[in-house]
Amino acid sequence: MASIHDGSSWVHDPELVEKLAEFDPEPFNGQVWRATGYSRDPMAFSYNGGRWAPPSSITSNPVLYTSFDKEGAIHEMASWMALLTPPPSKPIKVHSLSVAARSVVALSLPNLASLGVDVQNYERRNYAAMDEFPPSKSQEIGAALSFLGVDGLIVPSARFACNNLILFDNQNNQIEIDVDDAEIVNWMDYI
Q: CA spacing 20 to 30 A to 82: which of 25, 37, 116, 189?
């Protein structure tokens, strides 16, 4: 069974929710990196969807994408910006963030495969965009973890040899984020 959306509500796949509930969340305290547009707030959660969140046209699942590695954050942002037409000419900012979260689930590629993610094509952007349906398995996983009240998810980056931390903006989350530093970067140097 997959998660379903009838146009007005979202129903999570009960088998997926049950499998995800078996993973033990751990606290996370550490430094991560977030690349943003030049003038964007680095602590602003996104409602537009992405690999780990369905777009808001399906369900509201706000996320904050970060990376354990500065280069990973830059590569993630540069690969997305290179898809835009015309490509933006402004540089990006890379922010160092200190994050403390109460409950984070870590999923390796083998874990993701066991949950139905096509890890052979992990680097592809094969997830639903705004007004598209159905959501991808990775989007279902992110939405289900958020539904379970988990603060975040650690997964391998699809763009760089590091892990990413995805934070969920749940009503009951226990996340603290502080911006430590920012650097201006020419994202075109990374494509």
A: 116
Cα–Cα distance for residue pair 106/153, rounded to 1 Å? 6
pTM for the structure as a whole? 0.92
Residue with tokens 């030049």: 38
What digits encode the pLDDT tens for the residues 123-143?
Answer: 998 888 877 778 899 999 999
d(CA 125, CA 121): 9
Which tokens go with 25?
């969340």
Residues 48/56, Cβ–Cβ less than 8 Å: yes
**Cβ(23)–Cβ(110) below 8 Å:** no
Specify the DSSP element, H or E, that contains 142. Answer: helix 137-147
Number of DSSP helices (H) and strands (E) in the chain, helices first: 4, 8
